[in-house]
Hints:
There is one protein chain. By secondary structure, this protein is an alpha+beta fold. The chain folds into two domains: about 5-60, P-loop containing nucleotide triphosphate hydrolases (Rossmann fold, 3-Layer(aba) Sandwich), CATH 3.40.50.300; about 80-115, no CATH class. Helices cover about 20% and strands about 20% of the residues. The protein is built from three helices and three strands. It has helices at about 40-50, 80-90, 100-105, and strands at about 5-10, 15-25, 55-60. A hairpin with a 2-residue loop joins strand 1 and strand 2 (about 15-25). It is globular. The termini are far apart. The model has no long low-confidence stretch (mean pLDDT about 85).
Amino acid sequence: MAIEIKNLTKAYDGQAVLENLSLTFDDGSFTCIMGKSGVGKTTLLNILMGLENADSGVICGLDDKKVSVVFQENRLCNNITALLNIKMVIQKDSRITDDKISEYLRRIGLGNDLKSL
């Protein structure tokens, strides 16, 4: 099912960043979101990921999808382990254990031992 955005609006301190935005992202498609700083690119992604709420509008088609992003800049905390970096962003009530996170890290080649992560 496609992701459909209908009349999405978001403002900060009375300044509209997204105003009645309507888009459709077809299944299996790739979309590049480009624009000047401040036009709402990050706000749109944050709303799609559930990190922010829109002021109004509807998003359909996200129920069966996982949304993730890769930042252009390094967003990891260098002074803590990969395990702790991951634990900072998962839900506190998550059932994902440290052992499960470590297993996934090993699968992608990021260490064989928690101490090396």
